[in-house]
Design brief:
The protein has 69 residues and is of the alpha+beta class. It has 3 helices and 3 strands; from the N terminus they run αββαβα.
């Protein structure tokens, strides 16, 4: 199937989020890149997990990813 002309995926958004099978949008948490010695082990573990994107931002993200649905 050919892709419609003019519709492109925003690659910067595609690298930052993941769409689940049910259509929810997951993002990674901020604060895991550096200065990890000052953070507790519990806090570092929590930062390693994924988080759901807020409902107000989900629509905008899905508009940037037209071929995920």
């Amino acid at each position: 199937m050919r892709r419609p002309k003019g519709i492109k995926t925003k690659k910067s958004v595609a690298k930052r989020v993941k769409i689940t099978g049910t259509g929810k949008v997951l993002r990674s948490r901020a604060g895991r890149r550096h200065l990890l010695q000052g953070k507790s082990s519990k806090r570092r573990r929590r930062l390693g997990t994924r988080a759901l994107v807020d409902k107000t931002d989900t629509y905008k993200i899905l508009q940037s990813l037209p071929f995920t649905r």
